[in-house]
Amino acid sequence: MIDLRRxxxxxxxxxxxxxxxxxxxxxxxxxxxxxxxQQLEREIGAVLFRRSKRRVELTDAGAxxxxxxxxxxxxxxxxxxxxRRVESGETGRLTLGFISAVDYSILPGLLSAYRAAHxxxxxELRELTSDIQLRELHEGRIDAGMLLSPVDxxxxxxxxxxxxxxxxxxxxxxxxxxxxxxxxxxxxxxxxFVIFPRSAAAGLYDAIIEFCRNGGFAPRIAQEAIQxxxxxxxVSAGLGVALVPASLRDMRRRGVVxxxxxxxxxxxxxxxxxRAANRSACLAQFVATARSSVRRTAAGRRAAAASxxx
Length: 310
Hints:
D-Maltodextrin-Binding Protein, domain 2, five-stranded mixed beta sheet, three-stranded antiparallel beta sheet
């Protein structure tokens, strides 16, 4: 393998065709420079310069090597710059898992902020249920996941991103959909429910079941679906009602009406989770962006609350 340092020495001599001036450019004395060029010629097995007392000339081999050496040195510098950018998180690749619900709340803003600050990072997004995200985090298939709490795993670090209440999603021809006021949870008793399977989101499933029981009834589960869009589609088709995160109000679907509930529903918490041992700079920058987003959102809510009280 050719020593890049010797290639730089060679380029200096080849461009100036003078060992003394080349040594001055390189901030070294001439004898060591001459020895380095001789060593390079031995490594390559070719004479690079024709030397005389009056002049130094490139051989055909030397002229060929000059073009290649310039390209190799430029490539090496580019490689070094790119490597430093990867180390700093300026460039690289980040694979992010997310549940469908965040597509209607925090995901767009968070991705926009991260991309604006780190345009050189390639983002791969994968829509996955919480249980699959946990598995793929451990397997290293995703770098971070936006999933539902709880996450009881000491190998994972977490950051709460969003807490929100549940609202009722109703078929538009349901009598309850005509009400313009908040619904009592007990009004949903006896109606078929569309719900996440417990295997996909145990926290959300258990919260909904417990919420209904506290309201005086056990929900009659008619259908299960693992994506929020599918749940809302099944509601629009008249297959049942559903309790969904409040942010899904922004998902406009013909045939579906959203109504607030009089009772305080359980708070649904979305977490950002990642392997604590993952030292990726891109991941660290994404977590930092998420922390900033959470702080801005909290500050905005405090300001809104203060304004409402004044």
